[in-house]
C-alpha cells in the first residue's frame, strides 16, 4: 500500500483517523500500532514476522544495556545487538547479491555454483533496521532510557508514515511524543496541507517526469543521442527529488495528523553552494545517522587528516551500499565521496570565487550526473550513457522514439520542476498567510492540487516510490 493510492487516501487513512479520534487517549497508541501492522502486512504479510523479530531483538538488547554492570559487558551487549540487526539486513537485502557475484566468479573459474532460492527483500527493512540500531546506540550512550513497554517500541519502529521509506526518526526525538502528544486543529490542518503538497510532488511531478528516463535508460547504446540523454538526466533528477521529498512531506504530514512532529528530511538541496552543503540538505535523516553513528565515532575531523578521510570514505561507501545490493550503488557512494574529498582538498576555496548562482549550478550538475549512476544498474550501460551525453549527432525526428512519453504536459512539468527546486512556492504561501491576501486562497490552492493529483492518479498506472526498493 502506498500513500499515493486511492485505497490509502479513501479507505485506510480515513479509517485510521476515525478510530484514532473516537477512542480514549490512552488507547490511541494501540490504534496506531494495529493499523501500522495492517499497513505493512497489506503487501508484506509473510514479512511482518521479520519486522517483529527486529522489534523484539531491539527491545531485549535495549533492556540488557541498562542491566549489565561493567562497561566491557555493555559494549559486548551493544556489539551483539548491532550484529543481530545487521545480520537480518545483510541476509535479506544482500544475500542474493553475494551469491550472484560468487556464482559469476565461479563460472569463470570452473567451480560449481551455489544453487538456492532467491531471498525476497522485505519492504522498508533498511529503514526499520536503522531505527532499531539508533535506538539501541542511544540507550548505550544513555541519551534515552530503554522502553519497557514492547508495544510502544513496536509503534516507534513500525509507525506507518515512516515505516517503508523514512525519514529515519530517532527514538530520542519522539520518545516523549509516544506518551504525550498535544493535538490541535492548527497542527492537524498543517498535516493535511503537508500531505497534499507531498502527494502533488509525487503524482503531478515525479510520476510524469519519470516516464521519459524509464524509457531512455533502456535504449540500446547505438540509439542514444545527446538530446535523449540530457533530457533523461534532467527528468530523472526531477523525478528522484520530488518522489523522495514528496514521500517525506507525506510522512511528516501524516505524523502531524496524529500529533507527531517529525524533523525535516529535505531543505532545498539544489540551492546548496557546495556538495558538502548538499548532504546537509538532502535526505537529512540518513546523513545525520551516518554522521552521528559512523563518522564521529571513527574520529571525524578531530584526529588528523588520515582519520578524517577514512571516516568520510567509510560513510559514503556505506551510504552507497545502503541504497541497494548492486555495484552501481557502491559506485554512487564512491562518486559522492570523491566530490567531498575534492572540495576538502581545496576545490571549495575555488568555488568561493564564483557567484552563488554558479555554485548552485555546479551542485545541480554534480547531483544530476550522479543520478545516472543511481538509476542504471548495468555499469557498462552507465558508461555508454555518459558517452552519449557528448554525442550530438542529429536524428531525422528527435521526438519519434519519445512520442508516447513526451507531451506538452511533460515539458511543462520539467520546466515547473526545475523552477520548484527553489523555495519560491514556500515563499508564496508564507506571503499569502502573512499578508492575509484573500482569506481562503491558500486552502483553495491546496484543494486544486488535491483534485489534480486525484485526477492524475485515476489516469495513470505508473505510481511506484523509488525508495520503496531500499
Number of domains: 2
Specify Rg, calculated over alpha carbons. Answer: 23 Å
Shape: globular
* Helical coverage, percent range: over 70%
- SSE order, one letter for each helix or strand: HHHHHHHHHHHHHHHHHHHH
Structural class: mainly alpha
Write a brief caption for the model:
The protein has 470 residues and is mainly alpha-helical.
Question: Any overview of this molecule?
Answer:
The mean pLDDT is 87. The longest helix has 39 residues, at 71-109. α3 packs across α6 (150-158). The chain starts with 5 loop residues before the first helix and ends in an 11-residue tail after the last helix. Helix content is 71%, strand content 0%. With 470 residues, the protein is mostly helical. It folds into two domains: 6-181, no CATH class; 187-469, no CATH class.
Amino acid at each position: 500500500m502506498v500513500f499515493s493510492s486511492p485505497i490509502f487516501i479513501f479507505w485506510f487513512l480515513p479509517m485510521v483517523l476515525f478510530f484514532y479520534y473516537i477512542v480514549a487517549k490512552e488507547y490511541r497508541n494501540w490504534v496506531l500500532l494495529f493499523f501500522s501492522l495492517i499497513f505493512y502486512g497489506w503487501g508484506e504479510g509473510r514479512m511482518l514476522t521479520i519486522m517483529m523479530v527486529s522489534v523484539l531483538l531491539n527491545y531485549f538488547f535495549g533492556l540488557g544495556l541498562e542491566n549489565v554492570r561493567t562497561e566491557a559487558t555493555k559494549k559486548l551487549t551493544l556489539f551483539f545487538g548491532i550484529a543481530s540487526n545487521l545480520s537480518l539486513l545483510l541476509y535479506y537485502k544482500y544475500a542474493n547479491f553475494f551469491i550472484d557475484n560468487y556464482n559469476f566468479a565461479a563460472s569463470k573459474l570452473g567451480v560449481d555454483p551455489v544453487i538456492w532460492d532467491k531471498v525476497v527483500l522485505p519492504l522498508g527493512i533498511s529503514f526499520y533496521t536503522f531505527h532499531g540500531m539508533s535506538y539501541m546506540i542511544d540507550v548505550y550512550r544513555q541519551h534515552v532510557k530503554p522502553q519497557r513497554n514492547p508495544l510502544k517500541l513496536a509503534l516507534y519502529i513500525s509507525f506507518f508514515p515512516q515505516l517503508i521509506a523514512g525519514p529515519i526518526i530517532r527514538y530520542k526525538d519522539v520518545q516523549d511524543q509516544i506518551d504525550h502528544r498535544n493535538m490541535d486543529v492548527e497542527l492537524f490542518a498543517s498535516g493535511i496541507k503537508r500531505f497534499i503538497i507531498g502527494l502533488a510532488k509525487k503524482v503531478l511531478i515525479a510520476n510524469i517526469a519519470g516516464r521519459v528516463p524509464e524509457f531512455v535508460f533502456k535504449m540500446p547504446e547505438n540509439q542514444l543521442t545527446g538530446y535523449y540523454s540530457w533530457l533523461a538526466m534532467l527528468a530523472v533528477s526531477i523525478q528522484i527529488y520530488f518522489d523522495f521529498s514528496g514521500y517525506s512531506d507525506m510522512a511528516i504530514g501524516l505524523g502531524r495528523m496524529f500529533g507527531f512532529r517529525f524533523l525535516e528530511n529535505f531543505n532545498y538541496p539544489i540551492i546548496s553552494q557546495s556538495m558538502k552543503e548538499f548532504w546537509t540538505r538532502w535526505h537529512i535523516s540518513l546523513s545525520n545517522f551516518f554522521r552521528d553513528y559512523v563518522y564521529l565515532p571513527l574520529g571525524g575531523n578531530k584526529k588528523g587528516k588520515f582519520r578524517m578521510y577514512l571516516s568520510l570514505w567509510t560513510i559514503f561507501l556505506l551510504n552507497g551500499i545502503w541504497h541497494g545490493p548492486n555495484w552501481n550503488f557502491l559506485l554512487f557512494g564512491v562518486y559522492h565521496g570523491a566530490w567531498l574529498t575534492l572540495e576538502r582538498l581545496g576545490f571549495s576555496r575555488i568555488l568561493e570565487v564564483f557567484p552563488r548562482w554558479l555554485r548552485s549550478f555546479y551542485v545541480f550538475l554534480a547531483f544530476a550526473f550522479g543520478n545516472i549512476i543511481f538509476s542504471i544498474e548495468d555499469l557498462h550501460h552507465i558508461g555508454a550513457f555518459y558517452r552519449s551525453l557528448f554525442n550530438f549527432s542529429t536524428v531525422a525526428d528527435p521526438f519519434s522514439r519519445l512520442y508516447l512519453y513526451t507531451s506538452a504536459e511533460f515539458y511543462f512539468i520539467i520546466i515547473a520542476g526545475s523552477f520548484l527546486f527553489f523555495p519560491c512556492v514556500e515563499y508564496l504561501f508564507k506571503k499569502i498567510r502573512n499578508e492575509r491576501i484573500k482569506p481562503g486562497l491558500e486552502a483553495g490552492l491546496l484543494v486544486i492540487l488535491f483534485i489534480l493529483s486525484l485526477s492524475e492518479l485515476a489516469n495513470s498506472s505508473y505510481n511506484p516510490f523509488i525508495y520503496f526498493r531500499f
